[in-house]
Structures are given as structure tokens and as C-alpha cells.
Specification:
Layout: H1 19-85, H2 88-97
């Protein structure tokens, strides 16, 4: 055994690992990933905000539509009330009953030419 000889001629030389280069590469990768995560977060927040605004605007539109239908129904009701208040029979009954008015006699009518 004393005579056993080892031959290192075909052994690869150890590679020189530059710690500074590896740390710089990792730092650049970390910066890139952080920027990507921040952009993803900003886009996600914008997406959620836009969906929230969309739902809010849809609620406002439905509320405005409901108010419009109510106003149209109120307008129809008031138009019917105006039409019923303008009837000649009603006006005549109020004039005779509440105001004490009567149709003019022939002596009270004067024809103007």
C-alpha cells in the first residue's frame, strides 16, 4: 500500500465561484420579482376597484330607473286628476253650491254688437 499511487491528471480543477457575482445576480432577480409583484398587486387592486365601481353604477342606474317609473306613474295620476277637475259639471256644481252663483236671467244678458 505504500506504493499506491494516485493520479490526479484527469481530475477537473475546482471551479472558482464568485460570491459577488452570485449575490449580484440574486439581487437583480429579487428586484425583478419585487417589481413584478408590485405591478401585479396594482393591476389587481385596479381590477377590483373597477368591478366595485361597475356594481355601484349599476345600482345607481336601477335606482334612477325606479324613480323615473314612479315619476311617470305620478304624472299619469295627476293628469287624470286634472282632467276630472276640469269637467264642466263639476265646475258648475261648485259654482252653484259653494259660491252661490246661478245662470243669468234674460234681463241680465246684454248683447253687444
Amino acid at each position: 500500500m505504500a506504493q499506491a499511487r494516485t493520479h490526479y491528471g484527469k481530475v477537473a480543477a475546482p471551479r472558482h465561484i464568485a460570491g459577488v457575482e452570485l449575490a449580484t445576480h440574486r439581487l437583480d432577480l429579487f428586484k425583478f420579482l419585487m417589481i413584478c409583484m408590485i405591478l401585479f398587486t396594482v393591476v389587481s387592486v385596479f381590477h377590483v376597484w373597477s368591478r366595485f365601481k361597475l356594481v355601484d353604477l349599476n345600482l345607481q342606474i336601477s335606482e334612477a330607473s325606479r324613480q323615473l317609473k314612479e315619476a311617470e306613474q305620478e304624472q299619469k295620476r295627476l293628469s287624470l286628476e286634472v282632467a276630472s277637475l276640469r269637467t264642466p259639471g263639476r265646475i258648475e256644481s261648485i259654482a252653484k253650491g259653494e259660491l252661490g252663483m246661478a245662470l243669468p236671467s234674460e234681463q241680465q244678458v246684454i248683447l253687444v254688437k
